[in-house]
Specification:
By secondary structure, the protein is mostly helical. It is about 85% helix and about 0% strand. It has one domain. The protein contains two helices and no strands.
């Protein structure tokens, strides 16, 4: 899989680094989703107010 011009250790290091970075991205995404969900009702209420204000300006 690494090909003839890539050392085995370089290949393994790259695969492990990619795996760790992917796990970190997944963890950050899960934290962001949790934060959004925690404040969803408040954010939706604010958006509703903003949209009703815009609708009233037409």
């Amino acid at each position: 899989m690494a090909g003839p011009k890539v050392s085995r250790s370089s290949f393994v290091e790259r695969i492990l680094r990619d795996f760790v970075e992917q796990r970190a991205r997944q963890k950050r995404l899960a934290q962001e989703v949790a934060a959004i969900n925690e404040h969803a009702d408040e954010l939706n209420c604010e958006m509703s107010d903003a949209l009703s204000f815009q609708a009233g300006m037409d």
